[in-house]
Amino acid sequence: MRFVWAVAAFVLAALMIGAGIAQRTVFQGADTETAAVSIEDETPYVLVEGDVLNSRPGAQTLRAQGEGTIFAAYGRTADLEAWLSDTAYTRVSVDEEGALEADEVTPSLAVTDESTQSATPAPEETASAEGEATDDGATSDAVRSPVGSDLWLDEFQQEDVLIAPLQLPEDMSVLVAADGAAPAPADITVSWPIANATPWAGPLIVAGGVMMAVGVFLYILAIRHLRRSRGPRRKGLPVPVTEPIDLAVEGKDKGVISAGGRRALTGGRRRLIVVPAVAVSALLFAGCSSEAWPQFAPSPTPSPSASVIVPEGQQAPAVTEAQADRIWTRIAETAAAADEAADETLASTRMDGAVLAARSTNYALRAAIGDYPAPAALPAEPLTLVLPQAYDEWPRSIVGVVDDPGSNTSSIMMLTQQDQWSPYRLTYLASLEAATELPVVAPAYIGAVQPAPDSPFLLMPPAQLAEAYADILNNGEQSQYFDMFDAASDQFRVSVAGDRQKRLDEFNQTGASTGELTFQAAPGAYEPRALATLQSGAIVAVNIDEIDTVKPTNPDAVIKLDNNPTVRTLSGAEQSSTGFTTTYTDQLFFYVPGQGSTEKIRLLGYASDILNAKVIP
């Protein structure tokens, strides 16, 4: 009977192991589903819509095959369509029956010869020596490389065959191209994983291994029982009385056969039988992946976080945090290269407004004055705060804060993208005040709206802020706007007042009898930029010019610049009988509370640089 049970265990083990292996081999279906795109039109770009990528559940893998370098990028569908608005492209979508279809789309934005001369043409982006895109004002018919656009959330480049693993929502799409001039690859497929896990394959194989070990054990017991019983015995002759054996007798006369050897032999055979069975089970167990086992672990519970209510009708944020970090890295790298070479053209590809104006002046002074210092390097560190504008059109803005570990300082900046073809440029940059408390802002995935320049919902409209603060610099506590600003935290106003008084005292020691020195602050040439905070306020960046005027009061006197190479270089004159004006440009960031708030307007950060110097006509 023991042999019967052993054989039954062997059979059951074979069935269980075979069933487990079959689930992982012959009975296991395909692990991916693939849909091919049939593209007949030769266009430079192919847009694979989000509904194509999400027509099947699971992560997506896009595969494009062609000759040469293949480019792919993904981003918000609205951004990709805006970037392609002036060129023909192929759109891949899903029809009513669920099949993929490709249609050619003609340009929706007509660009005429006259419009190409406007301030925001569709530029041709070419790679500069530093790897940055540059604008040359080309028309939409010119070649525009898709590589390096700030609109992309991520991009890929591979030779001949491009494979891009994706997991995109329906509001995002993928752009496929070659170089923007040659036709895009026509061989494009999208694949999705198919759930073909076999959670009982592993348990069946392991249980079969255990059952095989049980069968081996039963078989050994059956053999042992058979040897001990040796079948039925007949009654024989009487056995003579056994005489004692002298154990001291050696050699062949010993008369004893040791049973220890047989026991050892039997035990050795048992081990030889059991060890292979366990080894086979271990090998089968090791060959099973996680898909061959049931998953009983509970889903992780997300930790609660502060909820932020998105205002009804608010649009999507312009960038993500990762996208903003990549944009800032590109700006910092370009600024470093431009500062080293004193190249204003290169700087203009990533800077604009007051920042570019200050840089241009610095480059001119360094070319004429050998020991003139270069601008402070931009910290190429990840942004510690990102507040993108929630806006689908252009221009778009981003407020960012970056820490500089080397100097233990922080900088606040405003980045602006003028149109869908332009890169983001640094338009305002300032150092944060010591111990500055930034206002509470929305997370980057929500973004913020841009208050109107004349917004009545703020304590002071952004368009009026520069004029009001310039009046405070001119009149101090006598200004009508003084009580609206937090004077206790404003170190910039104190430093300006101290610097003016120091220079005035020095001038009066030698020139008070023949000339006069006056100071005047006024709104600068660059428009303010603002983004709303969560407390109904706004972060506002403004530009103010500080103009120092020195002129003779005696008709026979002249103003000489013997000890002022900076003004001499910028004005192009060594002396003047009419005098000189020197302009400094200030970049200032304020927090402006909402109407009805008990807070005052606070200065967050500032920067001041010389802008120009001129002879008074």
UniProtKB/TrEMBL annotation:
Residues spanning the signal sequence: none
All copies of domain DUF8094, residue ranges: 316-614
Domain of life from the UniProt record: Bacteria
Transferase recorded as keyword: yes
Record keywords: Membrane, Transferase, Transmembrane, Transmembrane helix
Residue ranges crossing the lipid bilayer per the database entry: 200-223, 272-293
Keyword Signal: no
Ranges for region Disordered: 100-144
Gene Ontology MF terms: transferase activity
Low complexity composition-biased segments: 118-131
This protein's name: Glycosyl transferase
Source organism: Microbacterium invictum
